[in-house]
Amino acid sequence: MTGSKLAIDVVSQKTARPSPVGSVPSHVHYYRSWPIAGRRVLALVLGGLGALGATALLAPRSASARTAGFEGSAPSCYVTGGGGLEICRDGSEAEGVLIAPAPCAFVRGVQILKLPRSEAPGPIQTVFQGQTPIASRREEPCPERRATDSRDGGSLRTGRTVEALVTTLPPSADRFWVDLPEERARSRGWSEPTPAAEGIGPRDPIAIAGRDWAGEAYSYVFLLGQERVGMADAQDDARRRGRRRAEPDAAGPGPADVRRRVQIEARTLDFQSFEIRTRAADGYGLAWTPFEPKDSAKSGRGRSDPPSPAPVIDEAGKPVASVCTAPAFETHGLAGSISIVERTYHYVYTDVLPEDCGLAPDKRRTALYLRTAQDLSGPKVWSVAKKLAGPLPPGSLVRVARAKGLQRWAVSYTCQRPANAPGGPVADICLQYTADMNLDGIGALKLYADPVEAGRSPAYLGLRSGGDGSGRFDRSAHFWMTDAQGNLDTPSIYPNKAGFLTWLDRLAPTASGRDTSSLYGRPVYWATWTVRRTDAQ
Prior knowledge:
The protein is mostly beta strands. The protein is 10% helix and 29% strand. It has six helices and 25 strands. Strands 1, 2, 3, 4, 5, 6, 7, 23, 24 and 25 form a ten-stranded mixed β-sheet that branches. Strands 10, 11, 12, 13, 14 and 15 form a six-stranded antiparallel β-sheet that branches. Keywords: Membrane, Transmembrane, Transmembrane helix.
């Protein structure tokens, strides 16, 4: 199948129902707006993917599965779940383009939420981080953008669709893009941050149902903001954790540019209007404040005085915040997932190891942590953090949820294929299952082969879509489809699949064919996987 034929297939796609391998559905509206050069670049890349898919279909299935220590060739299956399960991905697994954004837009961290009702806001909601709104210019309605403004951290965006359209991103809209606390109040300590005029927009959303078993109608979305801290605070953090005092870099960021991630929270009844968790007027109590964009014609200066979120507080009275400070675009921590099991919320996320705070941000190793909760609406939400696993490579992203149809945890994470795998150590997404629902089983999984810093694992899915056409791939901000309680689910068109995965590729061709940004205009892809019991008769 040639690249030109694939380009025709993409444009003529009339339905979101999955196509055979080699025919990749796309978002027609955006694709038709691309310049010819951009279409040709994407067609060439997708043409290569089609050839790969055809090769996989023709290749004989390996009789042996990858084991935890396997470093050789790449059979289509590998064993997980304590030896009781096998994950298989071969050329017959469906993959495609979820969306190819316009140059002034981006889509990141797409959680597809399957709600238990067909009427609004169900049956399907997509929740993701997108671009912050900008004033339109008549001569350039969609100007190319770059994420160079530290406040352009994004807007929470949501969109509703029916299940038959799950393989294309539905129409979506900005829901809120609030300013965040930038300074912490020294007189009151961590639990009372002082709002400031500027901030960084919400990032890495995670949507989850409220206590629906108790009649609660709200759904909640947790996001990550950033607050500014002084250089002295950053140096104190490093010194308290046993590292040498961080020396300021004369060419680096000044004190005003050092930040820490904080978790913020919003709630909604319909995924269109949101209330944001804020401080009460007295500065102590909890309040839920509706987000209402100001009419620029009335205010004279666009949005004015939006609500400032209050960081989520744990049972110790401290904000849920990242361990280490860093410059605005180099902060790490708190990204993960939330799932409900036995009426308990399980928030599993990565954060930097405390002893690495004195290192450069890109050298800091991470670990996997767990917090639990019984009620998301109270003044103190999460338990204190418990370490599950580590060390993990710098910048690791891990998602955890109860597996579909199984009493096991599914754990997906960023990884590199082993050096001896086809294509060498290219970026992929790895997936393992635990033997049961014991939380300690998550920490017992060997996520990475030694040396851990290399980020390699034999449990890779072997994703084919994306890439720059030269064999390089980027698998950023992956997420998956969940039910309302954050546990794995699939569209009705894939009833026998074990999951539906989404990810951003910052190396894939952009809609404009230009590489002005590694985020704006880059495509988001989707894929499925299959799991079966190895002891099945």
